[in-house]
Amino acid sequence: MHKNPFIILLILSFSLILNIGNANAKQQPLRNINHQLAEDLGDHQSYADSDPGNYDYAKYIQRIYYLDRKTIIIQVKPGFQKMTKSDKTSISNQAFALTRSVQSNDCSHPETIKIKCNKKVIGLKRATQKNYQWK
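RESULT FIELD:
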């Protein structure tokens, strides 16, 4: 009878270890995607001077990353805020296209795209919206 609580505790501990392992396994592809996004953005930024028609958007982007499986953060440089809404939308769409090009099949489409300058959200687009909301 004294062994039962010990066995239950052992089983619960093992179950917790498996759950933590599964959570880490789910985050690993996201880490890989974010790493690939950083590399590709760096490449696009280096191409921007020689091929501005295709890569000029990258001059305005500091960083792009998945915050979680439902949210993409596009961190922009301060000069971005001086642009027209049309230009902001075009740059944001090109940055989002980069995320789609490197995301794995196990990532669903994000529900939210946040455009941030410094720590402030200056643009937002949800999956249910056709256009960005700019502040």
